[in-house]
Amino acid sequence: MLAFKYISFHYIRYFIVILLALVLFLVGFDYMGSAEKLDISANLLLIYIVYKTFYAIDMLLPLSLIFAMISTKIFLIRSNALVSFYSLGYSRIDILKPFVIVSTAIIILFISLHSISNFARADEFAKNIRKNAQYLSPTRDLFFTYKDKFVYFSKLLPLQESAEDIRVFSFVDNSLKEVLVAKRANYRNDVWIINEADIITKPEKISFDSLGMKVTKEQNLEILKGFRPKMLDQVYEGKVNFSIIDAFDAYFLLKDQNINTNIIKSALYKIFVYPFFVPSLIVIIFFFVPISVRFLNVSLFSFSAIISSLMVWALLFSLVELSNHKTIPSELGIVFPTFLLFLVAFRQWMKYRTSPRSN
After folding, report:
1. How far does CA 169 lie from the centroid of its chain?
2. Rounded to an integer, what distance in angstroms lies between the CA atom of residue 146 and that of residue 232?
3. If phi over 0 gives left and psi between -120 and 50 gives alpha, with beta otherwise, what is residue 174?
4. Rounded Cα–Cα distance for residues 19 and 60 (Å)
5. Across the chain, where does the E strand assignment appear?
6. What is the pLDDT of residues 268-312, one digit of tens each?
7. Between the N and C ends of the chain, which has fewer C-beta atoms within 10 Å?
8. What would the mean pLDDT of 29-45 be, rounded to a whole number?
């Protein structure tokens, strides 16, 4: 328990310092590169910086956990605390457990943050502020399918939860049956409500004797049950930054309509699977470090460990992006590499569980 508290304290301390440094560097570097484009009010500028900070945390937190482990291990070696713990009877696994438990707990907390839309979609909001001076820009010319209908929104306003210039095309046996035309629809109580609409109905049989098109006016119509404005904006614009609730809702809704859900699965894998490469990589790196400074070139080890961590993180991050853009299957780009690292880490754990305490 003494070793666990001591190591956990220093690990968390190094983690906070490293994460703060990396986030400040990324946000500061981004601001210097975007300052000329940010011709916005002070309030929007502050919101932009906050969203960029959220995005930096989302991207760099896993890497910070690994760097913090390396820094803590170097500290334990330099201070001879590691040798002292081994002399008191602690095993390698006992020393490793604080890193694994603390990093896993932080990863679980990190995953839970993705239930907050402002955190999960921070990069998207920041880009909208820089481009349009508002964090949720209108989506134009949105055309999608819903059950047996084709729906067109000329403009979707996610903040106002409304849409303008709506057309709903209904088909029966692959033949156009009617067209609903409305100027505006509002999202209320899980459905889109149209106060007033014109419904153009095509005659069942088109001939010279038919009565022609029939136009009727309808009021208080309800359409697209379950399609929240933010979900429409993300799913049909091909965006990949989902909150947890939005991702699950979108997945089940699209699956029920037999629509491709690869982007949604990729987003869910990125949230729930990808971050767990951190504990695995911590285990792998941990066992490569000698217990004493006499057996270790600290500078060389630090450089090698940091470069190796960066390479693994960059590779996984690249595979995640490729999966998000449907270049490769998300199972191959996200699940398989994370599971492979877990297998290597598990083998290392089992190998050293009963091994001697010194090299």
Report:
1. 34
2. 11
3. left
4. 7
5. 139-146, 149-157, 162-172, 175-188, 191-201, 214-223
6. 999 999 999 999 999 999 887 766 666 567 777 788 889 999 999
7. N
8. 79
Task: Kindly give, in sequence order, each residue whose CB lies less than 8 Å from that of residue 291, ignoring residues fewer than 6 positions away.
Answer: 77, 82, 83, 86, 357, 358, 359
Cβ–Cβ under 8 Å, residues 143 and 151? yes
Q: Hey, which residues does 216 pair with through a beta bridge?
A: 199
Beta bridge partners of 145: 150
Asked if 125 contacts 118 with a C-beta cutoff of 8 angstroms, the reply is yes
Largest CA distance in the chain: 101
Cα Rg of the chain (Å, integer)? 27
Residue in the structure block whose two tokens are 């100027």:
183
Cα–Cα distance measured from residue 169 to residue 152, given in angstroms and rounded to the nearest whole number: 8
Q: Any idea what DSSP says for residue 244?
A: H
Burial of 81 per CB tally in 10 Å (0-12, 13-18, 19+): middle
Q: 205 or 333: whose pLDDT is higher? A: 333
Token pair in block for residue 334: 């996200």
Residue 84's identity, in one-letter code, is S
Give pairs for 136-139: CB < 8 Å, separation 24+. 136/233, 139/232, 139/233, 139/237
Nearest to 163 by CA among 132, 140, 136, 197: 140
Residue 357 — very low, low, confident or very high, per pLDDT cuts 50/70/90? very low
Task: Answer whether residue 117 shows pLDDT above 80.
Answer: yes
Cα(295)–Cα(301) distance, integer angstroms: 11
Helix axis angle, 122-132 to 42-78, nearest 10°: 140
- What local confidence, expressed as pLDDT, does residue 276 receive? 96
Helices vs. strands in the chain: H and E counts, helices first: 13, 6
| Residue 228 in this model has a pLDDT that exceeds 80 | no
Length of the chain: 359
